[in-house]
């Protein structure tokens, strides 16, 4: 959810549901939690956006993910990782991977 709102204009719950491939009920529940934690704020009407606290939490999550990924891939040669990334990016850009 934080990723779906990050660097985007305020979005509706329906927009987030489509963007994140989540059921609308899951999005509504998550938004209630994030609102209570002041990581998301409601804008005009039914649109939501991250607060600074929400952006900080997302940054912390991305830092943790980068560290975890580096640890998990530490035994692989950088050239193998680069090839795998190029293949995956190509698949994504060319539409070989589709949503459910």
Distance between the termini: 18 Å
Which superfamily, in CATH terms, is the homologous superfamily?
Winged helix-like DNA-binding domain superfamily/Winged helix DNA-binding domain
Topology-level CATH name:
Arc Repressor Mutant, subunit A
Shape: globular
Radius of gyration based on Cα positions: 17 Å
> How confident overall, as mean pLDDT?
91
Task: Enumerate the spans where pLDDT stays under 50 for 5 or more consecutive residues.
Answer: none
Strand order of the largest sheet: 1-3-2
Query: How many domains comprise the coordinates?
Result: 1
Strand content: 5-15%
**CATH C-level class:** Mainly Alpha
The number of E-state strands comes to: 3
Structural notes for this entry:
This protein is mainly alpha-helical and 100 residues long. The protein has one domain: Arc Repressor Mutant, subunit A (Orthogonal Bundle). Helices cover 62% and strands 9% of the residues. The protein is built from five helices and three strands, in the order H-E-H-H-E-E-H-H. The chain has helices at 2-5, 13-20, 24-36, 52-72, 78-93; strands at 11-12, 40-42, 47-50. The protein has a three-stranded antiparallel sheet. Strand 2 (40-42) and strand 3 (47-50) form a beta hairpin. The model has no long low-confidence stretch (mean pLDDT 91).
What are the salient characteristics of this protein?
mainly alpha, Arc Repressor Mutant, subunit A, 62% helix
């Amino acid at each position: 959810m934080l990723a779906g709102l990050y660097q985007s204009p305020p979005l509706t719950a329906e927009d987030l549901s489509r963007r994140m491939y989540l059921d609308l009920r899951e999005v509504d529940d998550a938004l209630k939690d994030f609102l209570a934690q002041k990581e998301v704020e409601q804008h005009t009407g039914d649109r939501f956006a991250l607060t600074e606290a929400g952006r900080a939490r997302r940054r912390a999550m991305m830092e943790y993910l980068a560290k975890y990924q580096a640890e998990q891939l530490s035994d692989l040669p950088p050239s193998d990782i680069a090839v795998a990334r190029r293949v995956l990016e190509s698949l994504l850009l060319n539409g070989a991977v589709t949503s459910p």
